[in-house]
Amino acid sequence: MKAATVAHLDFPHAAQAIRIHRWRRVKGRPATRETAYGITSLTFEQAGAALLATFARQHWHIEDRQHYVRDVTFGEDASTSRTGRAPAALAIFRGAVITAIRAAGYRYIPEGRLDHVTATAALNLHGFP
């Protein structure tokens, strides 16, 4: 990772620009090198390169634990529900299921879903007798 102090960008509060080189592995494919760029309003005194690297890792932790699970396991991006409050309500239900499965001790969400396919098992997962 490299961070540089910047001025006069088209982003009014930008204080630093960041370049991250990382290796990306997709299952069944060879590893590829990827470059990501970012900007932040934090000055070097507020956040040096090490802290910015920590922030970047934490962002991918969220991406991996929430967004990937919703997109791949639940097919959220393929959902045809697009009107009214239905998409938000479905996202809340998916989040509740993910949280309940993790709270039950499952590391992998698909495994937890397979163990709770009946109505009784699903209700027990959420604490209903």
What attributes does this structure have?
about 130 residues; about 15% strand; 3-stranded antiparallel beta sheet; alpha+beta
Describe the protein's architecture and organization.
It contains 4 helices and 3 strands. It has helices at 49-73, 86-103, 109-114, 119-125; strands at 2-5, 16-24, 32-40. The longest helix has 25 residues, at 49-73. It starts with a strand and ends with a helix. The mean pLDDT is 89.
Shape: elongated
Major sheet, described briefly? 3 strands, antiparallel
What is the beta-strand fraction? 15-25%
Order of helices and strands: EEEHHHH
Strand elements, count? 3
Cα-to-Cα separation, first versus last residue = 51 Å
What percentage of residues falls in helices of 4 or more residues?
40-55%
Low-confidence stretches: none
Q: Report mean pLDDT, rounded to a whole number.
A: 89
Q: In terms of topology, how is this protein built?
A:
Layout: E1 2-5, E2 16-24, E3 32-40, H1 49-73, H2 86-103, H3 109-114, H4 119-125
Antiparallel strand pairs: 1-2, 2-3
Characterize this entry briefly.
The chain is an alpha+beta fold. It has four helices and three strands; from the N terminus they run βββαααα.
